Amino acid sequence: MNKGTLLVLSGSSGVGKGTIIAQVLEKRPELYLSVSCTTRAPRPGEVDGVNYYFISREEFQTRIERGEFLEYAEYVGNYYGTSMTVIREKLEKGVDVLLEIEVQGAAKVRERMPEAVSVFIVPPSFEELAQRLRGRGTDSEEKIQKRLETARREAKEIKNYDYIVVNDTVDHAAQEVLAILTAQGCRTERRIHEIEGV
Ligand code: 5GP
């Protein structure tokens, strides 16, 4: 049986990853969206175990020491990390897994799992990104400036990704992510053993 595809998705904070992912999952409910651990506080409406596992810095440190993370990174003053166990289990069972992580984490995943497919989602422009972050109304102006600075820094990493998707409209961006997944499933190494006489 084929292993699942590990799809790593990154993009500047506020670019609309969450909305795109929701649409992708609607079209492909069999895709497993990994739930990360974080030390940041939940935003209004976020649910523990659904959006993230919200844990303390101490707990996060302990898990780092135990080697539980496939990758982790510090981002705007908080830790974020992907637990290894569930991801491995799903991939072994042939389930496609989606990780929504920032650039340092994505670099780690590419290093440890070179078969992973990585996609960077960009906004149509930086002005648009600033507007979206303000419109969200969840962060202070200082935090927004920090996130924009981070976004500019992160843009330098785009060249290391396999694919770029521009979030001009959510429909279009989601369609492109789905197309990448579909193409991945058609790769010769995945299909060849299903063809008789080859
Ligand atoms: P937010 O605080 O907006 O939910 O997320 C901030 C950033 O952390 C986003 O770029 C998001 O992709 C990233 N992130 C979320 N979970 C993980 C994770 O498990 N590992 C890493 N490296 N980044 C993550």
Report what the structure shows.
By secondary structure, the chain is α/β, with parallel strands linked by helices. Helices cover 42% and strands 21% of the residues. It is built from eight helices and nine strands. The protein has helices at residues 17-27, 57-65, 84-92, 103-112, 126-136, 141-154, 170-185, 188-191; strands at residues 6-11, 32-33, 36-38, 52-54, 69-75, 78-83, 97-100, 117-122, 163-166. The strands form two sheets. Strands 2-7-1-8-9 form a five-stranded parallel beta sheet, sandwiched between helices. Strands 4-3-6-5 form a four-stranded mixed beta sheet. Strand 5 and strand 6 form a beta hairpin. Helix 1 packs across helix 7 (170-185). The protein is globular and about 65 Å long. The two termini are 17 Å apart. The mean pLDDT is 94. Bound molecules: guanosine-5'-monophosphate. Residues 13, 36, 40, 71, 73, 75, 80-82, 100-102, 104-105 line the site of guanosine-5'-monophosphate (5GP).
List the helices and strands and how they pair.
Elements: E1 6-11, H1 17-27, E2 32-33, E3 36-38, E4 52-54, H2 57-65, E5 69-75, E6 78-83, H3 84-92, E7 97-100, H4 103-112, E8 117-122, H5 126-136, H6 141-154, E9 163-166, H7 170-185, H8 188-191
Parallel strand pairs: 1-7, 1-8, 2-7, 3-4, 8-9
Antiparallel strand pairs: 3-6, 5-6
Helix pairs in contact: 1-7
Bound molecules: guanosine-5'-monophosphate.
Guanosine-5'-monophosphate (5GP) binds at residues 13, 36, 40, 71, 73, 75, 80-82, 100-102, 104-105.
